[in-house]
Amino acid sequence: MPSASHLQSVLRGAALRVTRPRVAVLAAVHAHPHADTDAVLADVRARLGDVSHQAVYDILRALTGAGLVRRFEPMGSAARYEARVGDHHHHVVCRSCGAIADVDAAAGPAAACLTPTDDAGYDIDEAEVIFWGRCPACAARTEPRQGKDRRV
Q1: Contact (Cβ atoms closer than 8 angstroms) between residue 43 and residue 36
Q2: Is the four-CA dihedral 105, 84, 44, 14 of positive or negative sign?
Q3: Using an 8 Å Cβ cutoff, are 59 and 65 in contact?
Q4: Contact, 94 vs 138, CB < 8 A?
Q5: Residue 129: which of 89, 86, 79 has the closest Cα?
Q6: Helix-helix angle 20-31:53-65, to 10 degrees
Q7: For residue 131, which of 28, 92, 117, 124 is within the disulfide window of CB 3.0 to 4.6 Å?
Q8: β-bridge pairing 89-94 and 100-104
Q9: Taking the mean position of all CA atoms in its chain, how far away is CA 135?
């Protein structure tokens, strides 16, 4: 977990004003990878006391816009935030309990699915992949599936 002074430097480096709530939100995202807004809010309130939901939303939006935080939204879930930015990684989500883990992106020919055959004129700068399955704990609690349903 980065120190408060490091987080302040990171905010300054992104040309963001350093405030206690911004430092607290950034610290919460570092402390709780893949947290939703409610979890970030609870952590910030534990650190600072009363902070509004709207303030946390606004700060998360500013941090995301500055590239300090990454926002992603698994289907059927609230938006999640993480401090792992600047690399190309994906996520795996448990269909049973909702646990989320980082998965490094494939390189070379295995990554071909990340390049569309027709970009429709878009200047594509990112591809987001979310893998779905069951985490080890949930898989151990249930019967094995009859073959894996692999959707691409």
Answers
A1: no
A2: negative
A3: no
A4: yes
A5: 89
A6: 80
A7: 92
A8: antiparallel
A9: 18
- What are the CA-CA distances from residue 39 to residues 34, 35, 66, 106 (Å)? 10, 6, 21, 30
* Predicted pLDDT at 145: 57
Q: Which tokens sit at 100?
A: 């989320």
One-letter amino acid identity for 39? A
Distance from the Cα of residue 140 to its chain's centroid: 26
69: phi then psi, degrees, rounded to nearest 5: -135, 145
State the pTM of this model. 0.83
Return per-residue pLDDT of the chain as tens, 152 residues. Answer: 899 999 999 999 999 999 999 999 999 999 999 999 999 999 999 999 999 999 999 999 999 999 999 999 999 999 999 999 988 789 999 999 999 999 987 776 556 666 778 889 998 877 788 999 999 999 998 766 555 555 54
List the structure tokens of 34. 């893949």
**Cα 40 from Cα 31, distance rounded (Å):** 9
Sequence letter at residue 134: R
